[in-house]
Amino acid sequence: NAGVTQTPKFQVLKTGQSMTLQCAQDMNHNSMYWYRQDPGMGLRLIYYSASEGTTDKGEVPNGYNVSRLNKREFSLRLESAAPSQTSVYFCASSEVDGLWVSNQPQHFGDGTRLSIL
Amino acid sequence: GESVGLHLPTLSVQEGDNSIINCAYSNSASDYFIWYKQESGKGPQFIIDIRSNMDKRQGQRVTVLLNKTVKHLSLQIAATQPGDSAVYFCAEVRRGTYKYIFGTGTRLKVLA
């Protein structure tokens, strides 16, 4: 009954370091998303994957890359971390048809709290 | 611009009372709406959703009301409990898009 699992839960990086945030879902959802959550702001979409084999940019993609490894897993990579990327990162998944006609709720993991010094 | 806003940033209610959390959405083309609960240190948790062909939907102790005329959404929590203390935010979704637009949230504090 895990739902969406994110690792690690916490991470501290130095400016310029790289790292990959991992996300896996066990609900057999087609679509997966990466968001960042900053104080006083709503969740902002970084990248999404409508289905296995596809990825697209969201609202704030600069400085990030993603990989949809398979249907279950969707990773987010910071190639050269910057202090502006200090945030809480959430992965989500949802079931959606190919034309986004019948949207369903997104289900979220518990986040990765990332600090960049 | 595109936004999903909330009228009250903090709402304090007595335990046992009913809570009402409000949300205004900006685009009349939005046809799907979701309420989430987020506890400290946790991810957003789905509470209830509603589609634009409905104006009311009930769950366990929660009711969502949708007023398309004034583009307003509300979440009603009956008999509020200490475990309901959290940040609540709404999201709007437009048919035919991947884009879920999330509000900034209202903090609900339950007073003993």
Textual characterization of the structure:
The complex is a heterodimer of chains A (117) and B (112). Chain A has 117 residues and is an all-beta fold. Helices cover 0% and strands 47% of the residues of chain A. Chain A has strands at residues 4-7, 10-13, 19-25, 31-37, 44-49, 56-57, 64-68, 74-78, 87-94, 107-108, 112-116. In chain A, strand 7 and strand 8 form a beta hairpin. Chain A is globular. The model of chain A has no long low-confidence stretch (mean pLDDT 92). Chain B has 112 residues and is mainly beta. Chain B has strands spanning 4-5, 10-14, 19-25, 30-38, 45-51, 56-58, 62-67, 72-77, 86-94, 100-102, 106-111. In chain B, the strands form 2 sheets. In chain B, strands 2, 4, 5, 9, 10 and 11 form a 6-stranded mixed beta sheet that branches. A 5-stranded antiparallel beta sheet of chain B has the order 1-3-8-7-6, with no helix packed on it. Chain A binds chain B through residues 4, 31, 33, 40-43, 45, 48, 50, 56, 90, 96, 99-101, 103, 105-111, and chain B through 4, 32, 34, 36, 41-46, 49, 89, 93, 95-105.
